[in-house]
Write a structure and sequence with these properties.
This protein is mainly alpha-helical and about 280 residues long. The protein has helices at about 10-20, 60-80, 85-100, 100-105, 110-115, 120-125, 135-150, 150-155, 175-185, 185-225, 230-265, and strands at about 25-30, 35-40, 40-45, 160-165, 170-175. The strands form two sheets. The chain has a three-stranded antiparallel β-sheet with strand order 1-2-3.
Length: about 280
């Protein structure tokens, strides 16, 4: 694996693939949200030139604009990834970064696995960026571009592939990818458990208060019944208290079920630390 330079630049071949994936236009147009754009997704927010209606550029100028726009993505990839990279790997990573944005790239599992020297896992993590559905063709191409540029000795053991029912037709992902996708639920289960605990705690205090009131009023009701009060009249007097107690019990039961289910998910938590080797 060649040494990684401090700041790498996208190769001509990588730029050609990026332009093919992104497409380019030599005349200004409004994108899907109404922002004036030209070249390879260039907007005024990215710097010169400022895009105005009717602006036209040559193909050479499109390439010049792309060179300037790529610098921030090349910088982001070079500084986020501490592992050694080949030129082809770098090109694939810049293509991903250009599409998802610098901050998302820095926080991605792709970067985390690369910095842990898990090149195969990093390649599979490209597929985690799977929305919208139409992007999966590009993701598979970027993953293939990355793998093609990765030396065989850096890939390690082969990985068992598993079909994912919730993904698109003919899409295959590794068991590692499925574990990572599942691990996204862990933070959600923490929120559920914390909320359920808070509800149970508050409900317990409320129920204790209601129980004390209920005990006092039950004694009054028994005394009244003993002195000849009608059961219907007693029911009319004390039904709000009974209803409140019943509601508290229902809330407590639902909160307990939510806590138990979240705990069950956490006990069966997934790990994204290692890949599952293929069975020999």
């Amino acid at each position: 694996m060649p040494l990684k330079e401090q700041i790498m630049q996208m190769s001509a071949q990588g730029r050609a693939l990026l332009m093919h994936r992104e497409g380019f236009r030599t005349k200004a147009y409004q994108d899907t949200v109404g922002v004036w754009t030209i070249g390879v997704g260039h907007t005024s927010a990215a710097g010169a030139p400022e895009i105005t209606p009717g602006l036209a550029v040559t193909k050479a100028e499109v390439d010049e604009i792309l060179s300037r726009d790529l610098r921030r993505y090349e910088f982001a990839v070079s500084h986020a990834v501490t592992a050694l990279l080949t030129q082809g790997q770098f090109d694939a990573l810049v293509s991903l970064c250009f599409n998802i944005g610098c901050e998302a790239f820095r926080q991605s599992t792709v970067v985390k696995r690369l910095n842990a020297m898990n090149y195969r896992g990093a390649a599979d993590a490209f597929l985690m960026w799977c929305k919208p559905a139409e992007i999966m063709g590009r993701r598979r191409a970027e993953r293939a571009q990355f793998l093609d540029a990765t030396p065989a000795d850096a890939l390690g053991a082969p990985v068992r592939f598993i079909a994912a029912e919730d993904l698109h037709e003919e899409e295959m992902v590794t068991a590692d990818y499925l574990r990572v996708a599942g691990s996204r639920t862990l933070s959600a289960t923490d929120l559920v458990k914390n909320a359920a605990t808070a509800v149970l705690g508050a409900d317990a205090v409320d129920s204790a208060t209601r129980a004390t009131d209920a005990l006092d009023q039950a004694r009054d009701a028994c005394a009244g019944f003993a002195h000849g009060a009608e059961a219907l009249e007693l029911a009319k007097s004390y039904w709000p208290l009974a209803a409140g107690l019943a509601l508290s019990l229902v809330i407590a039961a639902l909160a307990w079920l939510a806590w138990r289910e979240a705990h069950r998910i956490q006990r069966a938590r997934v790990e994204d630390a290692v890949l599952t080797p293929a069975a020999s």
